[in-house]
Amino acid sequence: MGASQTRSDHEHQHLTDKTGFSLEQIKNLHKRFQQLSGNEETISKEDLDRIPALANNPIKKQIIGAFFDKRNQHQDEVGSCDEIGFEQFLMVMSHFRPPTLKTTDEEKEAMRKEKLRFLFNMHDTDNDGTITLEEYRKVVEELLSKSGAIGQEAAKAIADAAMLEVASTNVPHMAPDDFYEGITFEHFEQILKGLEMESRMHIRFLDVDTTTMRCGKSTS
Amino acid sequence: MTSRRGSHSPAGFGKSLPERGLLLLVLLVLLEGSVLPLGAAGSPDTSHHTKAGNSAGNGTGNVTHKKAFPVLSLDYHHIQTPFEISLWVLLASLMKLGFHLIPRLSGIVPESCLLIVVGLMVGGLIKLAGEEVPPVLDSQFFFLCLLPPIILDAGYFLPIRPFMENLGTILIFAVIGTLWNAFFIGGLLYAVCQIQPANPSNLHQLELLPCLLFGSIVSAVDPVAVLAVFEEIHINELLHILVFGESLLNDAVTVVLYHLFEEFSEVGTVTVLDCVLGIISFLVVACGGVLVGAIYGILAAFTSRFTSHTRVIEPLFVFVYSYMAYLSAEMFHLSGIMALIACGAVMRPYVEANISHKSHTTIKYFLKMWSSVSETLIFIFLGVATVDGKHDWNWTFVTVTVILCLVARVIGVVGLTYMINKFRIVKLTTKDQFIIAYGGLRGAIAFSLGFLLKKELFPLREMFLTAIITVIFFTVFVQGMTIKPLVELLAVKKKQEAKRSINEEIHTQFLDHLLTGIEDICGHYGHHHWKDKLNRFNKKYVKKCLIAGERSKEPQLIAFYHKLEMKQAIELVESGGGVKMPSAMPSTVSMQNIQPKKPPLAKPVERALPQLPKGREEEIRKILRSNLQRTRQRLRSYNRHTLVADPYEDGLGDLLIKKQKMIELEKKIKDMNNYLTVPAAPPDSPTMCRARLASDPQAYHTKSVSDSVPAIQVDLASPQSPDSVNMMDEFRRAGQQQQQQEDQGLTMRPPSRPGEAGGARDPQKLTRCLSDPGPSADEEEDEPFLP
Predict the structure, then answer these.
(1) Which of B254-258, B392-396, B769-773 has the lowest mean pLDDT?
(2) Which residue of B has its CA nearest to A90?
(3) Residues B320-365: tens digit of each pLDDT
(4) Which residues in B lie closer than 8 A to residue A195 (C-beta atoms)?
(5) Locate the EF-hand domain: which residues (chain A) (predicted)?
(6) Is A2 part of any domain?
């Protein structure tokens, strides 16, 4: 127990530098990882699928898919894996860290770009660098998927209107025959700049042990 | 008198306007100042008159002379009270008008300061006239009539999302901050008062408990003053909600402390048990107030579910239920302000889903109007009451109070922020702290509470009042005037004016679900998880009870989208149809640009004909679309005694079917874009006539795709005459139809036939009818229960 403890500590130290989490947070996340994976080295999509609380989430598939998306690992690879290890798990989680008092303005900009990139990757499923109308429609449909038939009909109209808005904001003067290919990352940044991603897209990573709470148990 | 005013009406604009405005202002002040003492003197005069008359009558003997029939007589007494109230309200409103006519002044000096000065002038005038100043800031009147509209307005339009996100911070500032202020000020004042043993002044009479009471009165940040000043500086949302939320929530603390110290001042001692009871009382007051408000809010929401047939009185329910919530809370000495806020915030999402668009506008404008008048009156009365009151100026006491208020506020904010930042994710910077500390303005509530003190128990009541007024004047004038330049100097982030776009809405929802999902994967029940649970509970149970009809199942994104469309449709009609519908920005992008292109059908012939300009094409599309819409309605109820159904009110299903048809039609139009780039045909060509007979979509197909086209039966009794040639007529009719739909809420009359009345209506008239000429047209729109 002692030997493996120091070894994992060493690994965790390396991870703190890479992802920016504190040692305590990494330890807690590691415990959670172990729980989800059933004490194995990697987790698969089914492991995440089994979490009961996620069942009510309309965009469950996209969230799970984001974990297995290689683009979120910041290593310029594309495609998706079938299983991920703890390091990849942490990398994805690190997108949700909040800024601190000491974060400078450039760091905040970088953080915002990173988070927006994460969202962009979630929408751009075929990895061509743009979100086409079809992909955007799918996003809105998924969002409204729990709302029954009403949702599906309106989803298309909403997606169309949204796309139109992006196009008009970014490329205001298009000739009638021009075709707006899709939302590029720059356009995506432009339309969402009012939302201040670095302050909104975060969760609170606790420094306390979560596995001993009831909520920490997943079905396994 | 009216003629004098008339001659100064702004007959000419330009550089003489500020001078005219100033003249008008001074004149009005003098006018009102002179009428009011007349009014006050009125009743004794008439009574003298009648007495004189009687004595004269009796003096002439027992023979009753037949007096000449009084053709015109003055009976001021009969209408005195309402007349005076109306005069005050008129004065307040005219003042408000006047200030905005003088351009530079409103930029430098906040309105609240100007109003206090006006109050001082009026009070001075009344005193000069030798009359007794009416006790305008009577606490009863203030708390029951002047304060509720302002608080209701604030509560109804409270931005829930930032409020809830920062609730912890706000509560800490409100509760602990106010407690700290009260005890610090009260305690140190007592200490200072005891200091000078060699020079015994009446300060030495001051006991500890009255000092603490005074401290609690003067320590509360005032929502009226904060609203008045912060509204003009347009500061970013976070700071606004922090200071404003604190000013609202500290009411509970103030109520408890006030009653506590007032009770104990009679007795003279405080025990530990009393302190414990005080804490329990605080919880009861706060939670009780919120509970009372929530109950009334739910009642109001439930009532609004059934108002679909009596749209006219819908706003009344909102106002009456809220006011009753306030009064009920005050009845039990609970926090009335928190009750009002809770009532407004709870009922809003449900009521807005149930009421008509016009009722929504009515509620918005009535609330703004009442709160605006109330606020103006409060500041004027502050000025008047200052002139009136018997003052007891004590240099030591007053200066120490002012200094202590400032010091206590700064220390409190800095200390609390240090603690709070450990728990907050978005930390509060030093700049933020400065603004929060500087924004702690005191106002009329403090004065009224001081006014309520009984003279027997508090012999130094006048001194208290003087000190309170000085603090109020200091904070409102000095801090109120300098906060704007300071905000500029410190480059504090300002409010972003951009409207919520559909993309932001989509992504806000997306983020909510994403973060909830990540929290679930992480395994702890955080903020998002509980919010999500509450939203689901709300959707499943609460909405079904409180929202009528189909709208209870409407997802929030769709509700937002429909609201947006509605707004844009109104804008479209107002601007006369020139602007493209889905986008607010002037751009030439249309649906065509984003739909994936189909291979162009080989038809070289059309290119020979001149192309229709893009705008024209859009106009045509719009006409066709709107005609399609109208025809369906007309066909549904052609009886001239029934009203044309308003699609917005009618139920989601219909609207969506219509949408669906429109979208299909849009697709057809796009497919047939060959045709639409073609018609260089003049407006009265048979082609265009057919196009306008929009009941038959086959009119604008060159190909027969008739099978998939929704077949709409042409009603031969349709009043649309094919002889109408003018393009403008179409817009008039489109607008008129809108007009008819819009009117339905308030009037019941048969729809006039478009053919005959088409010419009479002007697009201009429609603009006036439909436009919202309000100062701030962008309000918080539909949000989920916990956005």
Answers:
(1) B769-773
(2) B522
(3) 999 999 999 999 988 899 999 999 999 998 998 888 888 899 999 9
(4) 504, 507-508, 511
(5) 111-146
(6) no
Residue among A59, A150, A165 minimizing CB distance to B583: A165
Choose the weakest-confidence range: A124-138, A189-203, B217-231, B734-748. B734-748
Amino acid at the residue B635: L
How close, in Å, is residue A177 to chain B by CA atoms?
Answer: 7
A87 domain-assigned:
yes
Structure tokens at A23: 């040692």
Residues A85 and A172 in one domain: no
Tokens in use for A50? 């089994």
- The count of structural domains within chain A is 2
Q: Are A164 and B530 in contact (CB under 8 A)?
A: no
pLDDT classification of B603: cutoffs 50, 70, 90: very low
* Res B268: pLDDT: 66
> CA triplet B268, B270, B272: central angle to 5 degrees?
170
Indicate whether A93 and A29 sit together in one domain: yes
Helix (H, G, I), strand (E, B) or coil at B692: helix
pLDDT tens figures, B673-714: 544 444 444 444 454 444 444 444 444 444 444 444 444 444
Q: Which domain holds residue A35?
A: 11-98+202-219
Residue A212: inside a domain: yes
Q: Please tell me whether residues A160 and A193 are part of one structural domain.
A: yes
Same domain membership, residue A169 and residue A80: no
Contact status, residue B252 vs residue B242, Cβ threshold 8 Å: no
CB-based contact B502 A158, cutoff 8 Å: yes
CATH number of the domain at A72, please: 1.10.238.10
Residues A19 and A87 in one domain: yes
Closest to A194 (Cβ–Cβ): which among B426, B498, B587?
Answer: B498
Is residue B349 within 8 Å of residue B542, measured between CB atoms?
no
pLDDT of B325 reads: 95
Burial of residue B760, with CB atoms counted within 10 A of its CB: 0-12 exposed, 13-18 middle, 19 or more buried: exposed
State the distance between the two ends of chain B, measured CA to CA, in whole angstroms. 54
**Shared domain check, A19 and A39:** yes
Q: Report CB contact under 8 Å: A195, B508.
A: yes
Report the gap between the CA of B425 and the closest CA in chain A (Å).
7
Partner residue opposite A204 with nearest CB, options B425, B588, B663 = B425
The Cα diameter of chain A in Å comes to: 71
What is the identity of the amino acid at B192?
A: V
Over residues A124-146, mean pLDDT: 82
Q: Which amino acid is at A209?
A: D
In a domain, A191, yes or no: yes
Same domain, A117 and A197: yes
Q: At what angle do helices B502-522 and A60-67 cross, to 10 degrees?
A: 60
For B157-168, what is the HEC assignment?
CCCHHHHHHCHH
CA-based nearest residue in chain B for residue A178: B593
B558 touches chain A (CB under 8 A): yes
ipTM, two decimals, is 0.89
Res B721 pLDDT > 80: no
pLDDT tens digit string along A79-114? 777 888 888 888 888 888 877 767 777 888 888 888
Q: Is the pLDDT of residue B669 over 80?
A: no
Rounded to an integer, what distance in angstroms lies between the CA atom of residue B638 and that of residue B750? Answer: 10
How many CB atoms within 10 Å of residue B280? Answer: 11
Same domain, A183 and A107: yes
- What pLDDT does residue A207 have? 66
